[in-house]
Design a protein that fits this description.
Order of helices and strands: HHHHH
Length: about 160
Amino acid sequence: MPGLPTGVVATIALVAVTLSLPCFLYGAWYIIETEPVTWDVLVYHLKFVLTGLVLTTVPVVFWMAPRLPDQFGGLSAIHAVLGLQAYAMLLFAMTGIVRIFRAKYEHDLYNDYDQDVLLDEIGGERMGHWRSRLRIGVFGYVIFWLLAYIVGVIRFGIRYVL
């Protein structure tokens, strides 16, 4: 953001990333607590998760990443590695999401839910594997996101508050 002091831009980035956490938490809670997962439930869940991803990713891409080469070391290196690991875990989860979505979509379970149809039955012998990838990836994303967030808040405090 040209013309704004660095501290103001850092504060805007911190607020955006902080606001993404409630989006992630509510989206996760909603999809876990809602049965059955229909198309409307999935879309509602994704609204919150994608909003959280935008609130996190936009500051990373447009403010944090371009400044990283000039300050790479110490806490900034830890912050960057944890953040990259979070996105790697998200990609890992996506490999499972794609297979699960495809299986449910092919059997029209998002529109015509049948509680007698088990995901493991329609998804083939590897469906348990894809479901595990989804769980591990999402859990890993949250853990690394939280660690990166904590390091980022510490960096913000050291650089702009103290």
